[in-house]
Amino acid sequence: MKILVTGGAGFIGFHLCSALLKEGHQIIAVDNFFTGTKENIAELSHNKNFTFVEHDINISFDYPVERIYNLACPASPVHYQKDPVKTTTTNVLGMINVLELAKKYGAKVLQASTSEIYGDPLESPQNESYNGNVNTLGPRACYDEGKRCAETLCMDYFRQYGTKVKIVRIFNTYGPNMYKDDGRVVSNFIIQALKNKDITVYGDGSQTRSFQYIDDLISGMILMMEKEDFTGPVNLGNPHEISINELAKTIIGLTGSQSKIVYQDLPEDDPKRRFPDILLAKKMLGWEPNIALEEGLKKTINYFRAKI
């Protein structure tokens, strides 16, 4: 099967392309290297079924494919706030270009949406019927509202044109091939711990997240793409809730670090609680995460230890 992966040089894109190649598919990966890396592409380029195209999805493109996984958008606050207008246009104009391509060739589209569409939630855990609590004027809105609009476009193309769409809402994901400077909490803490530097916690550390290992996410995305008669949205995440303080202490322990925890001001609109209700994923996909946090962290720590 011919499959297009936008954002194919990124953290999730790399792992998704790898998994699809193992299944024998022909992959076209598109990326503009805003956050993706040439190192990731180099690891895949030896496979004869892999083609890479350097391209920005805000500019229309045309590849005859049967499946499209749309991952093209910076996902960490450091990157999506660097050029917020670009972030919004990628989520809106880029999404339209993806949907137009799917409409032309009758391809299925899986949109990589995000738990950020729930904003700073007033309900926990978050399930798919919750409409969220998002500040439309804040510094995170370029990503939060951009992803919400992308979901809207998917459903409008589905209703108006019959375009086959799938929406997954991805909760915090970690693993090898994360960028060491991307500002995400797991990679930040691991790098700081391995270097015996202070672990920087924003706020008082009582805010919570849930962390799923990359392999669990990829299996969920592929299951969702191939599931008939189910559009979503569906949460893909680990329902185990952990505070940021607990995460920092766990990483210090696993690395044997001498790091100390220091505290800084909490960024504007940073969610206080974030963890998914995955009952719908269990029911419709037979999916739930299998890799425990400590096991996944050990694999990720080993990756970064080798890198630095």
Order of helices and strands: EHEHEEHHEHEEHEEEHEEHEHH
The stretches of 5 or more residues where confidence is low (pLDDT under 50) are none
Largest sheet: 7 strands, parallel
| CATH-assigned homologous superfamily | NAD(P)-binding Rossmann-like Domain
Provide the CATH topology. Rossmann fold
Query: Hey, roughly how much beta strand do the residues contain?
Result: 15-25%
How many extended strands? 13
Alpha-carbon distance between the termini? 38 Å
**Gyration radius from CA atoms, angstroms:** 19 Å
Secondary structure tally, helices: 10
As for the number of domains, it is: 1
Helix content: 25-40%
CATH architecture: 3-Layer(aba) Sandwich
CATH C-level class is: Alpha Beta
Shape: globular
Task: Itemize the secondary structure elements and their pairings.
Layout: E1 2-6, H1 11-22, E2 26-31, H2 38-44, E3 50-54, E4 67-70, H3 77-80, H4 84-105, E5 108-114, H5 141-161, E6 164-170, E7 173-174, H6 185-194, E8 199-202, E9 208-209, E10 212-213, H7 214-226, E11 234-236, E12 242-243, H8 244-255, E13 261-264, H9 279-285, H10 293-307
Parallel strand pairs: 1-2, 1-4, 2-3, 4-5, 5-6, 6-11, 7-10, 8-13
Antiparallel strand pairs: 9-12
Helix pairs in contact: 1-7, 4-5, 6-8, 6-10, 8-10
